[in-house]
Structure prediction request, 429 residues.
Amino acid sequence: MDLLDTLTAKGLRGETPTREEALAVLATTDDELLDVVAAAGRVRRRWFGRRVKLNYLVNLKSGLCPEDCSYCSQRLGSKAEILKYTWLKPGQAAEAAKAGVSGGAKRVCLVASGRGPTDRDIDRVTDTVAAIKEADPAVEICACLGLLSDNQAERLKAAGVDAYNHNLNTSEGTYGDIATTHTYADRVDTVQKAHGAGLSACSGLIAGMGESDEDLVDVVFALRELGSDSVPVNFLIPFEGTPLAKEWNLSPQRCLRILAMVRFVNPDTEVRIAGGREVHLRSMQPLGLHLANSIFLGDYLTSEGQAGQTDLDMIADAGFEVEGVGESTLPRHRADIAAAATGGCGSGATGGAGGGCGTAAVPGGSEGADAADGCGTGGGCGPCGGHGHAAPTADRAAEKAADQAADEVRTDLVRVRRRGAGTELAPNA
Ligand code: SF4
Prediction:
């Protein structure tokens, strides 16, 4: 297939495809799907080998957000029966982080609901970072706290935070359909503030909100232009009690096409399968590892993932390996760029300066960023989507099935988190 030969050649050179080529990936048929995965898998292996980076979410503050992101279980007016609690104490957060690191995660993602942090909130996060790094100085920390005000990114950087997550979520053209309390430009501004302060930028998207193929391609190219070191790809978790509870627009095949498109457009960037992995890829999750080089271990912010051990078994069974703390996530040329921007260490050979570069904050390493159901990552937030411009999905059988389910709330597939941070029960890691 000429398209896939062209995309593979470009990806192996680290080049970005054209917009038309990216759209063509989303328009491939089910008969072509394994060829698409194989082609994008070659690009993935060229830059990331068979390594899978594990990230672990700690929801520092859950629910009760004044913002109205339609996809989010923590939004204003959400009726989702999620855990609601205010800021975890530093020791509590460090305990939760320890569980994830013990399970193999090299990055801990500290997430808090809300429009953005107060200066007092930055103090809390500073104390939390100190508690986590006291227990394990090598752990990478990504913060996801919403919209940043002036000088807050610099304070997080000084506190030892390595990366900042803030997703663009969807295209600029449809952003107003998914949230009205802030704008796409606000989100871009925060990613730029984080990057400007020397934090590794982590920014991604949510698919499945009723967006068109053009919207998906728009946001993925925008993320490439923003210079995100890590691109989390969330698949909408339609929580009961949110405006998007009935938006079941995804099939496993569609998710794989989206991941392949994101990989071709970001050949040498960390691509992370974020929230919705279990819900939408289901038994096809192992194929996703051929496209993405990063996942979350265990649970998401407000929903439960599969058991952490099941994640580890899946990685091993599929012939991949968990990325170690001494390994650089990003390829050398990208890690060096990230290090120059962040004042960190560079590409991550061992024994280097450490410092928190775009990629591995380990003694000598370097690497990149993010998360799942709330602000940054997967599960919670999302958009709206009207079906007015739904993707031209033709007549694929699996997507017909998804359409038939579109009017139902699928409580069988979405499990609200009831363990870990904010509860008395042990975390899933
Ligand atoms: S995505 Fe973040 S800002 Fe939006 S409603 Fe959810 S917690 Fe609030």
Notes: Strands lie at 51-61, 107-112, 140-144, 163-165, 200-202, 205-207, 230-235, 270-273, 294-296, 321-322. Residues 65, 67, 69, 72, 74-75, 113, 115, 146, 374-375, 380-381 surround iron/sulfur cluster (CB under 6 Å). Confidence is low (pLDDT under 50) at residues 345-398.
